[in-house]
Amino acid sequence: MANFIENIGRGALDVVRDISKAFRLFLLTVYWIVVGPFRKRFVSPKYIFEQLVFVGVRSISIVFFVSFFTGVVLAMQGAYQLAQLGATIYVAGLVSVSMARELGPVLIALVVAGRVGAANTAQIGSMKVTEQIEALDTMALDPVRFLVVPRFLALLIMLPALTVFGDLAGMFGGYVVGVVNLDITPMLYIDTAVRFLALKDIYTGLFKSAIFAMVIAIVSCYQGLNTSGGAEGVGRHTTVSVVTSFIFIILTDCVITGLFYFADM
Amino acid sequence: MNAGEPIIVVKDLVKSFDGRRVLDGINLTAYKGETLVIMGGSGCGKSTLLRHMIGVHKPDSGSVTVKGKNISSLQEEELDEIKKSFGMLFQSAALLDYLTVEENITLPLAEHTDLDPDIIKIMVKMKLELVGLSGFQDLKPSQISGGMKKRVGLARAIAMDPEIIFYDEPTAGLDPIVAAVIDKLIVDLSKKLMITSVVVTHDMQSVFRIADRVAMLYKGKVVEHGTPPEIRSSDNPLVKQFIEGNPDGPVSFIQSGDDYLKDLMK
């Protein structure tokens, strides 16, 4: 029994230690972005550009599919309920508001955590176990400045951009169902969709996705930099990275939604 | 050979990992321009010692002084300056695998100097020529052989014209001819460019080809140290056994944890 409690205690301590270390990595990253350029050269734009392409451009197709079909499903489910009230026209508002406020940012963050977060951890992790991180260090190239900063910036820029794109793709999915299945005229659908959408819905959604971007970047890079134990370790840390990102995305989503819509900020 | 000024001084260095003492009071000096070989069996602490010299590990007690500065107490910027004056060849070469051969060698030059890209390109070509590898610039590390990777690693290590080069098992896993080529490169570099070399190895052939001075490490201590002829004629049974590669002797083959007996008696 004592052993059991001991294990819980040790596990909790590990979690606290991991969180504080990851937070330290976050501060270091921000430091290299804000103060770094005054002390040393800013990381080469080439590496940031490569990451921008990897995070953004190469995620477009999967983001489109996930968002579009989410919009379709949302419209179909919504129409089924709203039809009982004879209010199928509200499907337009339902889809646009829920995509912008909630589903767009969260779903796309989850997709990107799976695609980009896993890739970050696997790449940095395999660099770690093959001495490449140490090699960077002996060349006086700080791995945080060199590897984390480009990934962090790329996610911070591209995830909100993908979210805007995904929101639109989802609304388009709803539009297709509305126009083809529910016989709503295109103009009426668009008009209703826009009328229900407040500016606050969009900017809180984008704010969320910026936070999620930082969560994904820090979690995935932290797990990568702390990889040990060869190929097995890379696999384990990649899994942990994705799972942790998922959990933290949902948790921070809950907190931010609470702040914006219940605390009425 | 001890005429030069000391460039790396290791003093009473002690380091433990998880309660296991890996380095147990090491005293060692490398002089300017010489090739110092640190030899010893696997797990004797020689790689750990090397990692203290490059500032990756911090000592529990004792000190490592490089170019007159205690590197465990330096600020990051000062440490970076020291790091720029040395190169390191890793056991696995440790080339960045997402960059090409050329980009790997370009990296330190592009990051630490204000040289024009065209000049860097020429310098990279020269370094590759020096290690006998021109024409492979555009290949990725995964497309070249182990021996070639080591040579690219060496080209990267000398990219910044360092004063000191550290080699971690430079000939491990290479065929005898490539190993001899690497040894020749090490000797050439240190003689032609007056580079101080610190080599960690257990390849005895290589030791006698390249060393000006040899230190033998055993269980975290320097058990013998001297010129190659002195080492060859050493009476120390540990050294003798190691040079001859004899399975029987004071160095036990079985590397059990301390509690092997306890484990059996359970």
Radius of gyration of chain A using CA atoms only: 21 Å
Q: What's the total helix number of chain B?
A: 10
What is the H/E string of chain A? HHHHHHHHHH
Which segments of chain B are poorly predicted (pLDDT under 50) over 5 or more consecutive residues? Answer: none
**What is the average of the pLDDT values of chain A?**
92
Distance between the termini of chain A: 46 Å
Largest sheet of chain A: none
Work out the oligomeric state of the chains in this entry: heterodimer
User: CATH homologous superfamily of the domain at 1-85 and 163-168 and 196-266 in chain B, by name?
Assistant: P-loop containing nucleotide triphosphate hydrolases
Question: Key terms for this structure?
Answer:
heterodimer; A: 265 residues; mainly alpha; elongated; B: 266 residues; alpha/beta; Rossmann fold; six-stranded mixed beta sheet; four-stranded antiparallel beta sheet; 10 helices; 10 strands
What does this structure look like?
The complex is a heterodimer of chains A (about 260) and B (about 270). Helices cover about 85% and strands about 0% of the residues of chain A. By secondary structure, chain A is mainly α. Chain A has one domain. The model of chain A has no long low-confidence stretch (mean pLDDT about 90). In chain B, strand 1 (about 5-15) and strand 2 (about 20-30) form a beta hairpin. Chain B has about 270 residues and is α/β, with parallel strands linked by helices. Chain B has 10 helices and 10 strands. A 6-stranded mixed sheet of chain B has the order 6-7-8-3-9-10, with helices on both faces. In chain B, helix 3 (about 100-110) packs parallel to helix 5 (about 145-155). Chains A and B meet through helix 5 and helix 6 of A and helix 2, strand 6 and helix 3 of B.
